[in-house]
Amino acid sequence: MQHGTVSRTLLMKNRYMHVAYVPEQSNNIRQSAIGNGSKGKNCTLNCPLDELAILQLIMENPNITQKEMADRIGKSERTVKNKIASLKEKGYIQRLNGKRSGKWEVLIN
Hints:
By secondary structure, the chain is an alpha+beta fold. The chain is built from 3 helices and 4 strands, in the order ββαααββ. Strand 3 and strand 4 form a beta hairpin.
């Protein structure tokens, strides 16, 4: 099997190096395990990876604050607030006993 000349592209994306491998003569070979789906939505819950990270943090510590979440996942507090609102809207989480002394509850397994 001949591969011919190879073209590579190295990019920094989300603090990780992304390497794109594109053979010159691809012969219609698809090397993607994902297909045409969105790369940001690869879970069975149909939510982005940062929402999954927030769910995981809440499962580990139901008393975690949004500031602590933002620090742990490397996002802004505003982003975390938006993701929390999205998770609430989807019915995945809820807040119990108020804002200050409450805790988070994950409603899915």
